[in-house]
Amino acid sequence: MRPVRVLGAAIATAAVALAAAGCGDDGKTKASGDGAKTVTVQAGNGAVTVPAHPKRIVSLSPTHTETLFAIGAGSQVTAADSLSDYPANAPRTKLSAFKPNAEAIVKYRPDLVVLSNDMDGVVKALQKVKVPVLLEPAAAKLDDAYDEIADLGLATGHVAEAKKVTDGMRADIQKTVAASAKGKGLTYYHELDNQLHTVTSQTFVGQVYGLFGLRNVADAADKASGGYPQLSREYLVKKDPDLVFLADTKCCGQNAAAVAKRPGFGDLKAVKDGGVVPLDDDLASRWGPRLPQFVKAIGDAVQKTR
Fold it and tell me: Is 293 helix (H, G, I), strand (E, B) or coil?
């Protein structure tokens, strides 16, 4: 499964962003101290008690690696998975985020492991050897993304820095959307790969586009794909979207010229009117601190279209 498809996975969570003093918007306490030596975080795997200031963090999620560095906890990260390519100084290793190996992880002597997928029962395997694990799954909505950043701030001793990051994200996204309100009614197609796999409005990515009032041409095609249908060339040509967003520029070498050469695609409105928008695959597949950049790319395209 490509990272971008993990991004929009429909995770059944109802978490909301942390407020000051470690309380959620619903008024329930999110954290409790134990002589300032430990802190408890409500993660996807329940209440997890971790050292108040972990010094040997292993991150098995590119999104969470970005977050840890953004909130000032980068020096506490001793190892990151092989796909954690941002920032450049992240301590990338051969550890896999998709097939995590508990034995390989333990060799780094972590006092905290952060991941977004419990593949092959790695959470339980690490718990057996007394390693604290925070499972922070792929965000299903914007509030989930903010909440997970707040969780990592709480877990690493950077609560104030995490709040500053989420406040900045909210402000930047609101500014971009406000400046691009004229997108309402435009149709779009978001490409995950050159086999025409895409997302629907119910996914995280789809909800981001929904901020602009854009209509997803893939929604009607999603019968049993859980938000990730594969479209036919004929279907896409018939729907003739106003905008085509390519989230496969790195993985599959796609660009406006390549799309125009596809059979039948030369007549698409988006192709003829310059509405094919190349995206950075990573920005379009992660729900962390750089999310406003993905939103900005959409906003810029909307402004150019009308």
Answer: helix
180-305 sits in which CATH class? alpha beta
Q: Where in the chain is the domain with CATH 3.40.50.1980?
A: 8-171, 180-305
Element at 153 (helix H, strand E): helix 142-156
What pLDDT does residue 180 have? Answer: 86
Q: List phi, psi (to 5°) of 245.
A: -105, 125
143 Cβ partners below 8 Å, 6+ apart?
15, 16, 17
Rounded mean pLDDT, 173-186: 87
pTM of the predicted model over 0.90: no
Q: Is the bond preceding 100 in cis, omega lying within 30 degrees of 0? A: no
For residues 136 and 25, the answer to whether their CB atoms sit within 8 Å is no
Q: What is the CATH number of domain 8-171?
A: 3.40.50.1980
Query: What's residue 18's pLDDT?
Result: 26
